[in-house]
Amino acid sequence: MADQDGTPDITPERIYLNRRNFLRTGLLAGTAATTALVYRSFRPGSVTAPASEPARILTDPATGDPATSFEEIANYNNFYEFSTNKTDVAAKAQALRTRPWAVEIGGMVAAPQTLTIEEILDWPQEERVYRFRCVEGWSMVIPWTGFQLSELLARVQPLEKARYVAFETAYDPATMQSELSAGIAFPYVEGLRLDEAMHPLTILATGLYGKPMPNQNGAPLRLVVPWKYGFKSIKSIVRIYLTDTEPPATWSITSPREYGFYSNVNPSVDHPRWSQKTERRIGEYRMRETLMFNGYGDEVASLYEGMDLTKFY
Ligand code: MTE
Predict the structure, then answer these.
(1) Which 8-state DSSP code applies to residue 274?
(2) Four-residue CA torsion sign, 21, 23, 27, 32
(3) Mean pLDDT, range 111-130, rounded to an integer
(4) Which atom of ligand 1 is nearest the CA belonging to 188?
(5) Taking the C-alpha atoms of 91, 72, 85 and 238 in order, what is their torsion angle to the nearest 10 degrees?
(6) Which atom of ligand 1 is nearest to the CA of 140?
(7) CA of residue 206 to ligand 1 center, whole Å
(8) Which of these, 74, 77, 58, lies nearest to 2 by C-alpha position?
(9) pLDDT band with cut points at 50, 70 and 90 for residue 290
(10) Cα separation, 39 vs 31, whole angstroms
(11) Mutate to test the pocket of ligand 1, among 79, 103, 179 (most ligand atoms within 8 A of CB)
(12) Could you tell me if 257 and 163 are in contact, meaning their C-beta atoms sit under 8 angstroms apart?
């Protein structure tokens, strides 16, 4: 199949060059031609990478599970602005206009800012291979590129009274479907408690597999919160604001009995219409056990001390 930029993909994306130097120089914002030069594909068993840049197999660092293929990550999507059919999203989201793009950051902050996507892509980006668990019961392992949300929040200087961070997706009726067709209100909105937003695992992602973010995955900038159900990871963000009250969240508004504001991955709290005990890793047949906080409990459980985790939040 072909990449977003039309470059043919000969081999699986999970084997590719170590791109640390590439990321440091901020070339994610580079041209398709540059990208094609740097991201050479290799046939398994015929790797010719120089010794200083060994080929590597991308895995989830905690479990050793292989990353889900680029093709699966980029062709099985939830992005209701374009389609409610996961396998249609990739084609329909090609209509998303990602340039010019700016993100407004304001609310209860001392230094509100509007940043262009070019400015954001110029910041150092790092790779994070995270497990991703959708509330519907499927999961993936995704190699994101991006940066910690805490870095962006530090720049705007949250005020003492700020308690939450709210996010908003672009809504463009010319390229996106109507609320009526989607069955949810637009713009898509989400929120985190400020301490969740500041947590080092919480990132704003600008790409995956070292490529610029595909439109269907939330180009040019999306949230990724790996211990929460996937719907918290809001796509194509244009506005971030800090507030002292719990902000609205699209799925909690749409169906409050089914989707809570916190929505931490929790196998002991069933969705009203299905169990959350197991999940299907895309690309596999057998079911896996779902882990509390999607397996990130050592890092994040302390955020929820005092909350009864057998309850729905
Ligand atoms: N963000 C917006 N703006 N619109 C959406 O429909 N879907 C959410 C989340 N972010 C959604 C969104 C849901 S339900 C999931 S599971 C993930 O995006 C899917 O991300 P992916 O398509 O990159 O796997």
Answers:
(1) B
(2) positive
(3) 98
(4) 3
(5) -70
(6) 24
(7) 15
(8) 74
(9) very high
(10) 12
(11) 79
(12) no
Q: Set out the domains of the chain in order of their start, with CATH numbers.
A: 19-304 (3.90.420.10)
Lowest-pLDDT choice from 34-38, 68-72, 138-142, 276-280: 34-38
Task: Concatenate the DSSP letters of all residues of 145-159 into one string.
Answer: EEEEHHHHHHHH-B-
Q: What is the overall mean pLDDT for the chain? A: 87
Region 74-92: mean pLDDT is 98
Bridging pattern class, strands 278-281 and 138-148 = parallel
CA dihedral 174, 177, 180, 184 (to 10 degrees): -110
| pLDDT of 221 above 90 | yes
Identify the burial level of 161 via C-beta atoms within 10 angstroms of its C-beta, where 0-12 means exposed, 13-18 middle and 19 or more buried: exposed
Query: In the block, which residue shows the tokens 């709210």?
Result: 166
d(CA 53, CA 91): 34
Distance 72 CA to ligand 1 centre (A): 15
Residues 6+ apart with CB under 8 A from 21: none
| pTM for the structure as a whole | 0.85
Whether the pLDDT of residue 226 is over 70: the answer is yes
**Cβ count near 128 (within 10 Å):** 18
Q: What percent of the chain has pLDDT over 90?
A: 81
Mean pLDDT within 257-278: 97
Q: Which one, of 102, 140, 101, lies nearest residue 14 by Cα? A: 140
Contact present, 146 and 206 (Cβ < 8 Å): yes
Q: How far is the CA of 172 from the centre of ligand 1 (A)?
A: 17
Tokens of residue 52, six digits:
């200083």
> Which residues sit with their C-beta closer than 6 Å to ligand 1?
77-81, 134, 169, 188, 217-218, 230-231, 233-236
3-state secondary structure of 214: coil
What average pLDDT does the segment 231-240 reach? Answer: 99
